[in-house]
Amino acid sequence: MSAWQPLPDDLPPEVRHFVEQVRLLKDRTGLSLAALGARTAYSKSSWQRYLNATQPPPRQAIAALCRVADLTPADAERFAVRRELAVQVWPRPPAPDPAKPEQRGGVDGGDGVYEEEVPTLPWWVESGSAGGSAASGQKSVDSSRRVLLVAVLLALALALVTVVGAVAFG
Question: I need a labelling partner for 81 at 20 to 30 A (CA). Which of 13, 60, 73, 141 fits?
Fold first, then answer.
């Protein structure tokens, strides 16, 4: 297991339990934070914030982690429910002082409320598939398969051109 930073003592029990479970799931994948970021479209620094309980993870990040960890749909749903319970009691950062504009624009929306992060998706994943539902997860898989199919067809076309060229120009 990774050497995690200790969680703050004042965390609500729901948040502590959720973050501990997410840490165990991340460790179960065997991936580094950088590799997890590459597989989920959430950066290494985002995962550090989520796993150190400084910011609640977006629904899509937890869904992506569950996919990477090959959880069953029922187990992934349990993680989604744990996330919802934790987010309801997650400690909010203090609202910024309007007289100090440099405080605005941190990980929260500037008003002490966290915003859902939108991941940066790879080019082959259509922008419409960024939602958090099961149907959009299927669309993302279909898009990846389409890219693989196109790559295989291009490779076959190249091989055919090579063979025809070798025969024609012998």
Answer: 141
